[in-house]
Structures are given as C-alpha cells and as structure tokens.
C-alpha cells in the first residue's frame, strides 16, 4: 500500500492570534499546517517543504506580502506554489492588482469568512492531490519503460492523461472559482494577446483591426449584500456572469471577472459602435433577469453600469490606455445615474 502524503499549507502572518485562528479553521481539512511570522521565516520553510498552498498576509514588517510573493515566484523551487493573499484592503484598492502581478492566484478579505476560506483551500488541496498522483504514476511508468520496452503503449496512455490534466489545470487556473467565467489573470493574458495581434494586423494594413473593451459594475452591490446576505450576493454574481457569457455570443470574445462585482469583456475585431450595441444588449439582458434589489437607488431589481472603449492598436497606443478609457467611461456611466452605457472613444477610438 502506498504511503499517504498529507498536504502542507503555510500560513504567514506577523500576528500570533491570526496564525492560531487560521490553524483552528484549517483543522477542519486534512492538511498539515505550518506557521511563519515573517517573510524570512516563510522563505526558509518553503525551501525545506513542498507546500500545496500559501495563505499570505499582505501587511507585515520588514518584508511585506508582495515582496515575499515576488521572491517565491522568482525561485524555480517555489514558483509553482499557489498563493492566496489574506488582507484587509478594500476591493477597490489598487493593491489587489499589485497582488495578482506579484503572483497571487486569489485573495481573501479580513475578517476571513470560514466557509469561503475552506472552499478555496479544498480546491487547491484537491489539485495538489491529483498532481502528486499523476507524478507518481508517471515515475512508475518511466521505470517500467527502462525495464521493458513493451510498456511503451502504457507510457503513451499515461502521458496523454498527464497532458489532459495539464489542460484541465490550466483551465482551472484561468477560471474564476465563483462565477466560472475567466478570471483576472486570464483577462490580462487575453487582452495582451489580442492587442498584439491587432497591432500586427494594423501594421500590415492600417485601420484593419480594432479592439474594444467593456467594463461593467453591478449597481449598488454592497447594498445588495447588506440586504440579502453574502450567499445571495454570490448567487447574484453567478447569474450575472452566466447571462453575460450567453449574451456576448461570439466564441472569440472573452467575459471575465475583473474583481468583486466588476466584469470585463474583450471584443476582438470590433469597432466602437458595435461594442456599444453589445454593451446595451448586456444591460438589457441583466435587467430582464428581474433579480430583486430593494435597496437599489436605480430600479427595484439588479442593474449594471457599463463603460465602453475602442482602440486601433499601434505604436502610439497601449492595452493599458484601453483599460483606462473603459474605466473612465464606467465612472461616467455610474456618476450619470447608473443602469446605463457610456462610451469613451476620444483618444482610443478608431477614426
């Protein structure tokens, strides 16, 4: 019988009470918990242990969570370890984006919700278990191939299984766990890819390929959570995401969760006027759901505000400018009364 390997989780926080609180919660899952009170102590532990997950506090003296995450991502021995930031920062804070850039796969807000924490931890423990099982299978088959060439067919089958798992793992790492649409990391990669593709196309044929972006926000979502609770809030986001994905239509378009109650849609080869039409279709689709929202200042049901921007990628533009234009348009849609679409094509729209 193969020896059972217990997954290891590292909790990093400079406050002892937080460490023990996390340890009590994690006692509900099958794992071995390690604790570190500083970045240096955490680095030392990661070099001696293969962790399935790191729960990392952002605000720590000497070395903060961002610095530690960057060091871990830059080391071949530790770059594979998924990191979840545990922080008290507001979801609107730019530090959330900095966390993803530093290498985090997710973040949790303090005070930590036990059910949400356990749900996320179980996903990564399951992925780690499958990874260990497949690595063990591959190692066993490699030894048998050296001994008997007749097992080449079995090896091929194992490799196909491993490749399939890698694909599934990539899909899981690109998917938002709550809404099941693309996550922020997938959005960043897709936008960069589509921007460069359109830029190359416009270099060969100026004005041939435009790229549009829709950034949207669920109106008065905090009030929704306050009135109906976080479980209903999660259900609301799931319904919004599902409706957006169905309404967008084209296979090449991407719907992603941008953060909190914000979503973003990448529309390749789409001029601004067409993106406006898509945005209005999305607004009407969410409105038609009729999800009750008694505390909304706009309608008695859930609505969204949308900002639209378009660009003809060239040497004088950037993907970041497209995001900023869409963000500004969303701001104007919200300040203009919400439940509406606003376009910002000044410097980014095609001529």
Please explain how this structure is put together.
With 351 residues, this protein is α/β, with parallel strands linked by helices. It folds into two domains: 173 residues, Rossmann fold; 160 residues, Reverse transcriptase/Diguanylate cyclase domain (Alpha-Beta Plaits, 2-Layer Sandwich), CATH 3.30.70.270. The protein has eleven helices and ten strands. The strands form two sheets. A five-stranded parallel sheet has the order 2-1-3-4-5, with helices on both faces. α2 runs parallel beside α3 and α8 crosses α9. The longest helix has 34 residues. The N and C termini lie far apart (69 Å).
Tag the structure with descriptive keywords.
11 helices, 2 domains, 351 residues, Rossmann fold, single chain, coiled coil, Alpha-Beta Plaits, five-stranded mixed β-sheet, 50% helix, alpha/beta, 10 strands, 16% strand, disordered C terminus, Rev_trsase/Diguanyl_cyclase
Describe what is shown at a glance:
This protein is an alpha/beta fold and about 350 residues long. The protein contains eleven helices and ten strands.
Write the layout of secondary structure elements.
Elements: E1 8-12, H1 16-26, E2 32-36, H2 39-48, E3 53-57, H3 65-73, E4 83-87, H4 95-102, E5 106-109, H5 114-147, H6 152-173, H7 184-204, E6 211-218, H8 221-228, H9 230-248, E7 254-259, E8 262-268, H10 272-289, E9 304-311, H11 319-335, E10 341-343
Parallel strand pairs: 1-2, 1-3, 3-4, 4-5, 9-10
Antiparallel strand pairs: 6-8, 6-9, 7-8
């Amino acid at each position: 019988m193969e020896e059972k390997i217990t997954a290891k989780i590292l909790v990093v926080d400079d406050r002892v009470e937080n460490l023990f609180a996390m340890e009590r919660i994690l006692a509900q899952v099958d794992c071995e918990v390690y604790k570190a009170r500083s970045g240096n102590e955490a680095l030392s532990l990661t070099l001696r242990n293969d962790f399935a997950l790191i729960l990392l506090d952002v605000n720590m003296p000497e070395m903060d969570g961002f610095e530690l995450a960057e060091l871990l991502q830059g080391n071949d021995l530790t770059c594979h370890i998924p990191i979840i930031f545990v922080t008290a920062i507001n979801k609107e804070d730019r530090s959330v984006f900095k966390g993803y850039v530093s290498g985090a796969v997710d973040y949790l807000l303090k005070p930590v919700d036990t059910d949400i924490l356990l749900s996320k931890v179980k996903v990564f423990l399951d992925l780690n278990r499958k990874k260990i099982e497949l690595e063990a299978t591959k190692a066993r088959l490699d030894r048998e191939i050296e001994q008997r060439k007749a097992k080449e067919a079995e090896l091929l089958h194992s490799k196909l299984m491993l490749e399939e798992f890698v694909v599934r793992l990539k899909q899981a790492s690109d998917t938002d766990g709550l809404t099941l649409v693309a996550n922020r990391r997938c959005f960043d990669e897709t936008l960069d890819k589509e921007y460069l593709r359109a830029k190359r196309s416009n270099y060969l044929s100026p004005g041939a390929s435009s790229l549009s972006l829709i950034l949207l926000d669920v109106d008065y979502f905090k009030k929704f959570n306050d009135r109906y609770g976080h479980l209903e809030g999660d259900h609301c986001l799931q319904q919004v995401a599902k409706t957006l994905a169905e309404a967008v239509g084209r296979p090449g378009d991407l719907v992603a969760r941008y953060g909190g109650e914000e979503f973003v849609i990448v529309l390749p080869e789409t001029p601004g006027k067409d993106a406006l039409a898509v945005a209005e279709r999305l607004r009407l689709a969410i409105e038609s759901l009729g999800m009750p929202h008694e505390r909304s200042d706009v309608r008695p049901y859930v609505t969204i505000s949308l900002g639209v921007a378009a660009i003809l990628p060239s040497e004088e533009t950037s993907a970041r400018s497209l995001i900023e234009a869409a963000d500004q348009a969303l701001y104007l849609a919200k300040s203009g009364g919400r439940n509406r679409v606003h376009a910002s094509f000044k410097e980014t729209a095609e001529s």
